[in-house]
Amino acid sequence: MATSEQMIRADLLRLVTAGSVDDGKSTLIGRLLFDTKQILVDQLEHIEDASRRRGHDYVDLALLTDGLRAEREQGITIDVAYRSFLTPRRRFQLADAPGHVQYTRNMVTGASTADLAVILVDARKGVVEQTRRHSYITAILELPHVVFAVNKMDLVDYAEERYDEIARELAELGTKLGLHDPHVVPVSALKGDNVVDATGAMPWYEGPTLLEYLESVELLAGRNLADRRFPVQWVIRPMADEHHDYRGYAGQVAGGVWRAGDEVVVLPSGLRSRVAAVETADGPISEAVPEQSVTIRLEDDVDVSRSDMLADPERPPIVARELTARVCWMSERPLVPRAKLQVKATTRTVRALVDELVSVTEIHSLDEQPSPEQLELNDIAIVRLRLAEPLVVDPYARNRATGAFILVDEAKFETVGAGMILHAAS
Amino acid sequence: MSASTAPRTLSHLEALESEAIHIMREVAAERERPVLLFSGGKDSIVLLRLAEKAFRPAKFPFPVMHVDTGHNFPEVVEFRDRLVAELGERLVVASVQESIDRGRVVDQTGPRASRNQLQTTTLLDAIEEHGFDAAMGGARRDEERARAKERIFSFRDDFGQWNPRAQRPELWNLYNGRIRKGEHIRVFPISNWTELDVWQYIATEGLELPSIYFSHERDVFRRDGMLYAVSEFVERLPGEEPFRASVRFRTVGDMTCTGGVLSEAATIDEVVTEIAATRVTERGETRADDRVSEAAMEDRKRAGYF
User: Fold this and answer.
1) How far is A290 from chain B (nearest CA, A)?
2) How far is B15 from A115, CA to CA, in rounded Å?
3) Could you tell me the fold of the domain covering A4-222?
4) Domain A318-425 bears CATH identifier 2.40.30.10
């Protein structure tokens, strides 16, 4: 057990798991939760009881993650589930994206907030179409880390040759897709080999167990620390006697490290100022890092409101009127050229027109097919958008926070797409 | 992505805090009439602290609302009034008793009577009466399996219903708060927190809690394996003999459905240590309302419960 001091200093790793029930994903998650002692007595009793009522002669660990009645009744997983587990080294936030229906939409959703993807590979089947799809989504979402868990090693007699063969194929796939920092771990989720503990079943494997790897991943890798970006969310103006002239810009740091004295350009207006203070409700702080929610005050009384971005004038973002982006379409209503949508990027929402459907990814071969007539649910495509008003953005590969957007239906207000900016032009 | 000078990563509490602050500011910016739901429990006490972090030195851009069943622990109601007064914020109380008096709902009777179910009507009526279009609450995904699948911005129709099959995908930190008239959203800024995170945050921030969270001597009786406080709101069944015990409460709901646990933990540090070593979830141990059926929470959420 960790001391309370250690637990309070633990950092947070967000991960997404991809794979189907057949790959043993639920068993792997169950094993991670079970072996790190996150499953409590009443939860275990509950799933033991539920397994018995379903006539299983084993404890079905998938019941831990299947939360909705329809899922339990039909034995399917409908939606992304989020759960937490904790080790003495790190706090983990896991997005569990189901593998069957809606898998693209679910995995894109789960991966959007993740630092790392765990992709399940069945040791008997090796690299299959689904492995390639999961890897493709991991690559286009620019996850800074990915680990392939080659599962069911017990069913291939823990054979080193088989593992080596799969690891070679995965290395090729990683290079082809441009995966960041790929790792491979041979495991048996069912038997518990190399998930949390190295059991000695695979003495030829000298690397870390899956959990050891997850505990050691360098979190800063996915953050852009070079380009200062601060989308303004909310203007704090107390309008009370004691804080008469106070005007603070509240937001979450989207890039770089912010300190008092930093030069600032306000975009899209182009006005210039300097940071007077970086503070929280508890007072000034020496610096603010990516993902931190803070308040920035400027030296000059310039016009700044929600949807403006504060940035480093030496390394400014793009004030864009045109975007070329990779889009995952998430609506059952097809997307056609000339469609009008709303685009929300950072804290700014503008109207957009679909100028061109450039290409769509053929999901079996992962080849780009030019000029599709329309996009269907779960299609991943390259789309050109013309904006009614400018957005302040970066290419997604450079900054995930300022390069991402969602598409919102103008009539129904539903979220119908996720976008990752490839090029932006004024 | 090149590295410059900064070596620092946020601790998990700092990361969760920043996420929650971001969510609250999005709600304030994107909705016209938000409200923050406050029960007097530890999760909503954390929410109030997070609202201070998000909006000080200004006032909150929303009122605080308590759905008062009339069966709350008196210590909690007292604490609520004092805390909201100290913060200088506006408190709205929506009363289940008034809903009963107005004939909107009928009070249950008998030893197992609880007003827990009735809260939903009072909440939805209050949302409509005040024209609230976003209600922020302290629910967490680790509390229950249905909640693990609920979005942070959870969309409700005209009837306040949650439809798990028609949830909006939630990507990056880009929340879609757009709704049509008559609809509203429930927002859960501490969705990703666990019970232990909440207690660690309370310890780190030095937050004050109602006294019932800490070990104290109280007259209790045993029912369904839980320890209930003896009170005027709960009729005891034959054989439910009261006795004195040292208990604390892990959750704060109605006196009619919240059980205590035997505990000697009298300080926040002792509670954190006890929680870290616990083998039973908080709702499983102390909430009768979740025990009704395998999908008890899902059913209540579909009907508009938090």
Assistant:
1) 9
2) 13
3) Rossmann fold (3.40.50)
4) yes
pLDDT digits (tens, 9 = 90+) for A119-132: 999 999 999 988 99
What does the pLDDT look like over B121-168, one tens digit per residue? 888 888 889 999 999 999 998 887 777 788 999 988 777 777 777 788
Collapsing DSSP to helix, strand or coil, A193 comes out as strand
What is the interface size between A and B, counted as CB pairs within 8 Å? 230
The DSSP annotation for B13-38 comes to HHHHHHHHHHHHHHHHHH-SSEEEE-
Q: For B155-182, what is each residue's pLDDT tens digit?
A: 887 777 777 777 889 999 999 999 988 7
Distance CA A167, CA A176 (A): 14
Instruction: Name the segment(s) of chain B with CATH classification 3.40.50.620.
Output: 12-196+295-302
pLDDT of B64 > 50? The answer is: yes
- Interchain proximity A72–B294, CB inside 8 Å: yes
SS3 content of chain B, % helix, strand, coil (to 5): 35, 15, 45
Q: Which residue of A has its CA nearest to B200?
A: A8
Residues in chain A predicted with pLDDT less than 50, given as ranges, are 1-3
User: Does the pLDDT at position B287 exceed 80?
Assistant: no
Q: Region B230-259: what's the mean pLDDT?
A: 82
Instruction: For A229-311, give the CATH class.
Output: mainly beta
Q: Tell me how far CA of residue A101 lies from CA of A247, A327, B211, in angstroms.
A: 48, 19, 48
- Best residue in B2, B4, B149, B292 for a mutation probing chain A (most A CBs within 10 Å): B149
| Residue B292 binned pLDDT confidence (cut-offs 50, 70, 90) | very low
* CATH of span B12-196+295-302: 3.40.50.620
Identify the closest residue of chain B to A93 by CA–CA distance.
B192
- Return the C-alpha torsion angle A74, A75, A80, A82, nearest 10: 120
Q: Of A203, A114, A126, A206, whose CA–CA distance to A170 is shortest?
A: A126
Domain ranges of chain A: 4-222, 229-311, 318-425
- Residue B187 CB burial class (10 angstroms; 0-12, 13-18, ≥19): buried
pLDDT score for B285: 60
pLDDT for the residue numbered A239: 78
A260-270 pLDDT, tens digit per residue, is: 999 999 999 99
Q: Which residue of A has its CA nearest to B295?
A: A69
Contact A264, A297 (CB under 8 A): no
Nearest to B9 among A11, A287, A330 (CB): A11
Distance of alpha carbon A119 from the chain centroid: 14
Q: Are strands B259-262 and B226-229 parallel, antiparallel or unpaired?
A: antiparallel
Chain A hits for B8, CB-CB cut-off 8 Å, are 287, 289
Flag if A226 and B1 touch (Cβ within 8 Å).
yes
- Scanning every residue of chain B, which has its alpha carbon at the shortest distance from the alpha carbon of A246? B57
Q: Which residue in chain B is spatially nearest to A7 when comparing CA positions?
A: B200
**CA atoms of A418 and A325, how far apart (whole Å):** 10
Whole-angstrom distance, CA of residue A378 vs CA of residue A396: 20
pLDDT digits (tens, 9 = 90+) for A161-211: 999 999 999 999 999 999 999 999 999 988 889 999 898 899 999 999 999
> Taking residues B260-276, what's their average pLDDT?
85
CB contacts of A280 in chain B (<8 Å) are 53
- Helices B195-205 and B42-55 pack at an angle, to 10 degrees, of 60
Question: How many CB atoms neighbour CB B147 within 10 A?
Answer: 22
Give the best residue of B17, B30, B133, B174 to mutate against chain A (max A CB count within 10 A).
B174
Domains A229-311 and A318-425 share a fold: yes
pLDDT in tens, A91-124: 999 988 776 656 788 899 999 999 999 999 999 9
Is the Cβ pair A226, B3 closer than 8 Å? yes
